[in-house]
Amino acid sequence: MSQDDLATNAVDPSPHRPSGDEEETYYEGRPLLRADQAKALLYGLIGIVLIGWPIAVWALTETHIPVWLGLISIVLGIVAFLAPMLITRTTRYKITSYRIDYERGILKKRIDTMELWHIEDIRFEQGLMDRIMNVGSIIIISHDDTNPRLELHGIPNPRPLFEKLKQRVIAVKRQRGVIKMDTGN
Predict the structure, then answer these.
(1) Category of 119 on φ-ψ map: left (φ > 0), alpha (ψ -120 to 50) or beta
(2) What architecture is domain 92-176?
(3) Which distant-in-sequence residues (6+ apart) come within 8 Å of 50 by Cβ?
(4) 100, 161 in Cβ contact below 8 A?
(5) Cβ-Cβ contacts under 8 Å for 20 (sequence gap 6 or more)
(6) What are phi and psi of 163, to 5 degrees?
(7) CA 47/CA 67 separation, integer angstroms
(8) Neighbours of 119 (CB within 10 A)
(9) Mean per-residue pLDDT over the chain, rounded
(10) CA distance 164 to 147
(11) CB-CB contact of 39 with 177 (8 Å)
(12) pTM of the model
């Protein structure tokens, strides 16, 4: 085969993007634990109770609970205490100029990808404590079959990312020729 034949048979790996339009990463990271303070406090209290009650029963009363029951309670208490941290450490977001990757899972990893042109609506939420902690959530409503509603929770400094993502969704839809039609329902 000649060089000309190779050039004509070359396949563009990403036909939906015009050449020269490189994918840019807007955010890559984990949700911050400080976004879930109430949940972390609740799980912490549950953990303390589960760890504390068998110890209190063994130390303060003459009632004897089975050792296996006490040990199970202590192990469950440790798991409850560490659960919010485990969940945030095993969740990852990657937001680029063309897609959003959402990875999660403790024992089994699962990665879902949502193309930006599938997004129907995008919403920003930031409560009072979130504003104090400078975290927030970006909620995405899409035509994606596996994830029609995706909440990117615990994003640091979320407002600039939301604005950039909102503008990028419009640009990608224009680029692909996606037109939103109102059916009058």
Answers:
(1) beta
(2) Roll (2.30)
(3) 73, 74, 76, 77, 80
(4) no
(5) none
(6) -65, -45
(7) 18
(8) 23
(9) 84
(10) 21
(11) no
(12) 0.71
